[in-house]
From TrEMBL:
Sorted UniProt keywords: Cell membrane, Membrane, Transmembrane, Transmembrane helix
Superkingdom: Bacteria
Localisation: Cell membrane
Pfam family, one: BPD_transp_2
InterPro entries tied to this protein: ABC_transp_permease
Membrane topology designation: Multi-pass membrane protein
Spans traversing the lipid bilayer: 55-80, 92-118, 124-144, 164-185, 217-234, 254-284, 296-312
Organism: Flectobacillus roseus
Protein's recorded name: Ribose ABC transporter permease
Amino acid sequence: MHKELLKKSQSLIALLLLCIVISILSDKFLSANNIWNVLRQISVNVCISTGMTLVVLMAGIDLSVGSVLAFTSVICAGLLKDGITIGALNIHVGFTIFGGILAAIIVGLLIGLFNGFVITKFSLPPFVATLAMLTIARGATMLYTQGIPISNLGPKFEYIGSGWLIGIPVPVWISILLVLLVVFISQKTAFGRHIYAIGGNEKAAFLSGINIQVTKLIVYGISGMMAAVGGIMVTSRLNSAQPNAGASYELDSIAAVVIGGTSLSGGIGTVTGTVIGAAIIGVLNNGLVLLNVSPFWQQVVKGLVILLAVIIDRKSKK
């Protein structure tokens, strides 16, 4: 616990220093519009990264979240736009906003459960299983859309990503609620303790009676659902589902988790630390844009930040 608090405090200090440096270099950084814009952008990564945190706490990894985000977003948009037509029965079923969102989340859950099933049933490394799903989901997205965006989904759906509630962007409220829920699950329930136990020592967790297969299935299912929620937020903000959405989101998510103090070896970390990590990634992205840094250099900088975070994690582990 002491180590987790130390990592969290270090991440928080790093965030504050980063904000100070960028605010000195750019007078636009602390403007109200920019702050709200940063919070909207961070909200998507927070949703994805909360699910990723649970996966990494078990010493796993989920590389498919970006592609799952894209696939579930086009499913949601397609259902809202065109519904489902059963040609053999000549039946057309339309979908409400709630129905489309629910369908997308269920698809995300099923993909996550499939990842967990493959990993536990066939003893595949999570890296390999989720890398395969990354390709499958991206290919399925292109097949579903033929590479064409699905747009004009209506102002009510757009409100989810662009609207305000009590003076705060709706995506921020969604991410706050999801973070609180996952914090409760990870810190206050037996299921959460099982996740930490598996990440700390899987063999000992098995001998103590923890159902490792079921726990992993549920955690990967949660990761898939969180990616779907992120996809809904991105799609509603743009009022369009883009087939190439979510590209490299898995890297930003993993970066947020590691920077936030969660160990890639499992067993150590917190969701609140991940939120700080996501804030660091979001502020860094925004600062580089404000400073007119080339997008290519932005990738280099983010890669170096991830590398530094992993090195620090390994050093502290030793």
